[in-house]
Amino acid sequence: MTTSTIRSALDREENQIKDDILRMGSMVETAIERAVTALKQRDGALAQQIIDEDKFINKMRFQIEEECLTVIATQQPAASDLRATIAATHVAVELERMADHATGIATITLRMLDQPLLKPLIDVPLMANIAREMIRGALDAFIRHDAELARQIAARDDEVDELYQQVFRELLTYMLEDPKNINRATYLLWVAHNLERIADRATNLCERAIFISTGQLADLDV
Fold first, then answer.
1. CA distances from 59 to 34, 53, 124, 196 (A)
2. Is the pLDDT score of 6 beyond 70?
């Protein structure tokens, strides 16, 4: 087998992994969007659909991990190819856990169906939108091996953290004003917490993009 043939096979398998990661990322983005929509619209059927479809995202994670192991075992990648393959396994895990957070929001929605929302949802959808943009940007940086873009995307985690603190303070005020609000406020606080964790995991994706590009693991969540 010639060197060019080996390189062609490696490129083909790496491209398949990239395509599957982008597909999985799209599935996660959709789950997050639908989870917040279900919460806003008090849509129990949609919330249940998100929970039921989480198994497909889990399946994608294991598929990507198997593809990466196959590449390592059969193609013996080196240097940036090896870093990209190893990083892809971490990306798949992070995406799967983001989907778990979306499922968590859907589960909270089901528990809140018999109660009106404590407050209009303004900051929560904004947190979700930024988190989804971070996922999209982080995956773009990962695919392009673009360390600078990864750093720019990771910086947006501060926006989500600020919104989370704002939601926390507002909900705490509701709790102090009337103890009867504690249950509903706590549910919304957990929704915001799930979104804040999704943004943190998007930052982790950025770290992997930097790792591929530079060979250095950087802690961006500081």
1. 20, 10, 28, 24
2. no
